[in-house]
Amino acid sequence: MVATSWPGFDPEWSRTIDVWSTSAVDAPGTVRRWHLLDNGAQLSHHGPAPAGTLLCVHGNPTWSYLWRSLLAAGSDPAHPWRVVAVDQLDMGYSERTGTFRRLADRINDLGDLTDALGLDGPVVTVGHDWGGVISLGWALAHPQHVTGVVLTNTAVHQPSDSAIPPALRIALHPAVHPWGTTTSDAFLRVTHSLANPPLPADIRKAYMAPYRGARRRAGVGNFVADIPADASHPSFPALNRVAEGLRELKVPALMLWGPRDPIFSDRYLKDLTSRLPHADVHRFEGAGHLVAEDRNIARPVFEWLAVHGGANGSDSPTVEATPTGSQGLKNGTEREPAGFRPLWDLLGEQAAGPAGGDTAIAEMAPDGTAARPLSWQQLQKTIVDVAAGLREAGVGPGSRVSLMVPPGVDLTVALYACLRLGAVVVVADAGLGTRGLSRAVKGTTPDFLIGIDKALAAASVLGWPGRRISVRDLPAARRRILGVEISLDVLARRGAGVGEDQPTHPVDPTAPAAVLFTSGSTGPAKGVLYTHRQLAAMRDTVAETFGIRSGARLVAGFAPFALLGPALGAVSVTPAMDVTSPRTLTARALADAAAAIDATVVFASPAALRNVLVTRDGVSGAGHKALQGIELLLSAGAPIPEPLLAELQRLLPQASLHTPYGMTEALPVTDISFEQIQAAAAESAAGTVAGAGNGVCVGTPVHGVRVAVVPLAADGTAPGSHPVTEAGVTGEILVSAAHVKETYDRLWLTQRESTSLPGWHRTGDVGHFDGAGRLWVEGRLAHVVTAPGAVVTPVGAEQAIERLDCVRMAAIAGVGPAGTQAVVAVVETVPPTRKAGPAAPQLAGRVRKAALEAGVNVSAVLAVPAQPTDIRHNAKIDRTRLSRWASRVLAGGRPGDP
Questions:
Q1: Same domain, 83 and 51
Q2: What is the CATH number of the domain that holds 840?
Q3: Which residues contact 580 (CB under 8 A, 6 or more apart)?
Q4: Kind and range of the H or E element at 131?
Q5: Which end of the chain is more exposed for a tag (fewer CB within 10 A), N or C?
Q6: Looking at the domain assignment, is residue 745 inside a domain?
Q7: pTM (2 decimals)?
Q8: What phi-psi label fits residue 329: left (phi over 0), alpha (psi between -120 and 50 degrees) or beta?
Q9: Do residues 715 and 825 both lie within one domain?
Q10: Based on the domain organization, do 33 and 137 belong to the same domain?
Q11: Beta carbons of 386 and 469 less than 8 angstroms apart
């Protein structure tokens, strides 16, 4: 009996149907009773006619209840879709047949059911677990009806060189299988425990309901036994037919994935995308095997259907499968557009020109001397040699190569060698922390991993994918331990004298070139995919905006510019520091690096510059002389207070100080100099320019960039569709430029949100323009506080509080329900407080007064020994984390550290 009180379940969906079976395991004339959830009757009452049918197939050991969110969403008259969620035979509330039904039988069974239902196109199949394979088998058998496929955590192929997942190995073991899957309900309970967050008790009960008693669990055991562990299994041919058939499936595809899945890991996602290279993919970080429970999949499914599903099948597009990252001439006719120059173009010009014998790149040794200098000619030859060696090792167009190498000579060589081959470089630095870095590497599923010894050791321990290449030659025993195949040194030697003779292939400007990761300061770090054209546009924008030309000499204390230097034709040196930990840059290290190349340009993060000022007493007379030669200082990643810039100006008296605003998705966006910051501050204080103030002034758009805002609504969102540039209007900041990223890597929903206004990238930052056309950044959209009757952006009040001599860093956070949030100020004091908790009355009074002068009424003031900041910049405060902590403290919980 199907219960009626489960969460999200509508009893009107439940129905049974008798179906004539054509399965080989059934006698002729056998009729099987199926149970399914079907919202068709509801739609017929409501109208209008559905756009099509979602045919949803569960796996093991779930049932059609898994798809209740799709059933509910499809019943909405605003976007009606008939949703038919089946209970497979021997599963859920369908008939217990007493037969062992293999994969081929189940695909056939599903066809019998859809024939009985009279189901025709347009049909979009939806599958999970082994229901994914079965739904795809049905799709391949019914191409005339299928207009799309949706997959969640499934697999169609088991690599012959790797074992099946440990959880399934245990379940298949003869000593475990009967008891674990049938005699007891252990397999069900273990599967349900994979949900993240844990399933509520009533939902667990709903999933258990059809499987109470060993007789009702026979199908669960048979499903496990039918897993084709190798080619000798009876179901292997059927699985292989589905796997190979996918390569010819041209309909739109969507894959929604939970990476925290001990069964169907990202390697299976990689296999699926290789077979359906045109598929849209969204990985829900933190979600696992039961992704339909862990996240609301109805939203992305129905948004995707709005694009690809078609209306009554009439405009359902087919998609030609063009492998992501493929390089070369499309249809044999496309040529590089006029004016396009690959990222490495200037590097080659420098090598061939009169400066070819001059130093191009170096890195600093701890003793303050330049190490491993390469001339332009040497750098070019090394890149060409390594590229030839990598090509021999199997790296080619579209290969993903994770570069786990610190900025310097080795990283520069590896990066440019890969780009020349058409490979996609993946750059995720150690500044993400161990968990964040591991998440990033696994999520991109690289084909190759080039790393230093420490990174290779982490890859072995943490199970990072990819064939492993070391930077240096390693002893044989160490290579075996780390699983290293070869080294860059060996590849360079093998490629020496070969690379120049090999033909070069035209660069497809639209081909993927790099996946760069965000800082992760506002959630899990996101992979940002750039094409060759966009990387080249970034180079050109930087050159045009800041006047960095061939012959410039750059100290790169910020990883992106350590890689961009050679592309600009600039002599580059990496100071003696851990670039992934900005606070490790000292004034002496900066001075030594500047002296080594007679530097004219410095790029360093705000946290690095703070430490430079703290350690400036360690600079020698010669060091000061080198710093006096700096003509341009660039710093991005977080705002720099005006007093800090004034101190930097004294240390670098000849430098023009610039603090460009940008992000991993688009760098740079705007620019402003120290003098312009001072002028903007004076105009804000005097009130002579409309809209000046309440945020960080980041200047005007740089060369080739357009910026606008979408006004904020009262609930703190930016729902509008009309970008504006009027002074004083606060909204989400939009950017349009040739160097804006192509997409978020395997984050289809995030990408869709970021491009919901055609032609614009939604940055997630909020700000406004002043009457002089300057942009003022007021914080992140996610950090906007919705107080009663007011929307509070954090940065203006934070700046006002930070002007107090007793406050080092301040953060504004919201506590309570949206629309009625209390504004809380969290301050890091000078000197630091010993314990986190409510601020002393005198301090609290001063903070409230300062915030009120900025127009913000603070309800509570809390003090912390140190603000929780992101690892990469050591400057971006995690306000979301602070909000959770402040809620706990104000509710009477133990403060602890945020």
A1: yes
A2: 3.30.300.30
A3: 406, 429, 430, 431, 559, 871, 872
A4: helix 130-141
A5: N
A6: yes
A7: 0.91
A8: beta
A9: no
A10: yes
A11: no
pLDDT score of 429: 79
Neighbours of 478 (CB within 10 A): 14
Q: How far apart are CA 36 and CA 48, in angstroms?
A: 23
Q: Can you give the CATH number for the domain in which 750 is found?
A: 2.30.38.10
Q: Which of 812, 730, 737 is nearest to 775 (CA)?
A: 730
| For the chain, the helix, strand and coil percentages under 3-state DSSP, each to the nearest 5 | 40, 20, 40
pLDDT tens per residue across span 309-359: 753 333 433 433 333 333 332 333 333 445 799 999 999 999 999 999 999
The answer to the question of residue 262 being in a domain is yes
What whole-number distance in Å separates Cα of residue 355 and Cα of residue 551?
9
Q: Which amino acid is at 442?
A: K
Degrees, nearest 5: CA angle 304-309-310: 135
Tell whether the model's pLDDT for residue 500 goes beyond 70: no
Residue 109 in any domain: the answer is yes
Structural domain boundaries enclosing 452: 362-505
Q: Looking at the structure, do residues 207 and 247 belong to the same domain, yes or no? A: yes
Write out pLDDT tens, residues 40-62: 999 988 778 899 999 999 999 99
Instruction: State the residue for tokens 């190798």.
Output: 230
Residues 24 and 158 reside in one and the same domain: yes
Per-residue pLDDT tens over the stretch 427-462: 987 778 888 899 999 999 999 999 999 999 999 999
Tell me if 89 sits within 8 A of 111, measured CB to CB: no
**What is the overall mean pLDDT for the chain?**
91
* pLDDT tens digits along 850-875: 999 999 999 999 999 988 875 444 45
Using only C-alpha atoms, what is the Rg of the chain?
30
Pick the last residue of a domain from 471, 488, 505. 505
